[in-house]
Amino acid sequence: MNYRRLGSAGIKVSELSLGSWVTYGPQVDIDAAAQMLKTAYDHGVNFFDNAETYAAGVSEEIMGAALRKLGLRRASYLVSTKLYWGLNDGPNEKNTLNRKYLMQGIDGSLKRLGLDFVDLLFCHRPDPNTPMEEVVWAMSDIVSSGKALYWGTSEWSAEEIRQAWEIADRRNLRKPQMEQPQYSLLARDKVEYDYQRLYTDIGLGLTTWSPLASGVLSGKYAKGIPEGSRLALPGFEWLQQRYSRDVLHAAAAIEPIARELGGTSAQLAIAWCVANPNVSTVITGASRLSQLEENLGALDMVPKLTQEVLERIDKAMEPARQAMKQ
Ligand code: NDP
Fold first, then answer.
1. Which of 21, 74, 109, 178 is the least crowded, having the fewest Cβ atoms under 10 Å away?
2. Tell me, what CATH number does 106's domain have?
3. Whole domain around residue 71: which residue ranges?
4. With a threshold of 0.85, does the pTM exceed it?
5. Atom from ligand 1 closest to the CA of residue 27
6. DSSP state of 77
7. What is the pLDDT of residues 166-205, one digit of tens each?
């Protein structure tokens, strides 16, 4: 496993990390989580991603219980959570980054995780209804309190990130250090274009999500939707809208390249994300151990991604990218 600095920060994250969205709760219980966390950790993974909203708080409880069960040394791994959507209805508790919500939200997350602090705390989405200054001040205060070590954003625009950073700079507050954007062969714009100046201007780090586009880039949906897979899960019908039959079919086009390189489509798709030097860590997801083991093997494929191979991948994926636009 290689480790990369989180942008300009001193902290280092493993090139591959592991998250709990969709899986913890509906698909993965405490024992299975512990088994996968341990396998990832033994392969050098040092960052585990979570959010308040995942399975309405249950995901944090499962990760916390699994980490306690494993008894791993706290200094040897990083845990994140994210705040925005909230767990309760009410004008100040939902879809917001107001100060009261953030201050109480972090306490709720720490309680569910059973931790004294999270390493990374994200504003899960931007909130146009709270002044940016209020958000920055609250996140900075949380970091100063020791309840989080670094703060960042998820799916913010480049302009919003820069605005937050400049407020923090002017006011001598803790600056946002990392962004968590979607990044895969089917979602490239933010990472490759929108944020381009931020890597050097403010030292932005990236913890990217959905490297397989929810499993689509594994190629397993090319001939239909397998039972028990994410696209078949109750509550995730919206994913079938995002990935049409044309996309599911076209996404399988990387399979011959992966085979030629001695790996699988999933490994190739994950390795492709790792190959971008602006990415600090690629957050993977797995509903079972065999997937995690396969995905960890992506690292062997990274050195094989020569310029020529990258160009072939680009060409092979063009129809899928076009299908995404329809
Ligand atoms: P992926 O795109 O890699 O999808 C993971 C899912 O794909 C698995 O749960 C599994 O689903 C399937 N899968 C994984 N490996 C394989 C394989 N080798 N072969 C076949 N199918 C496979 O990542 P996620 O969408 O899960 O995102 C990763 C993490 O990123 C999340 O856990 C979360 O921590 C973070 N995230 C952050 C977001 C944000 O807004 N900040 C949004 C979304 C995710 P199944 O078996 O059920 O089909």
1. 74
2. 3.20.20.100
3. 3-325
4. yes
5. 47
6. -
7. 999 999 999 999 999 999 999 999 999 999 999 999 999 9
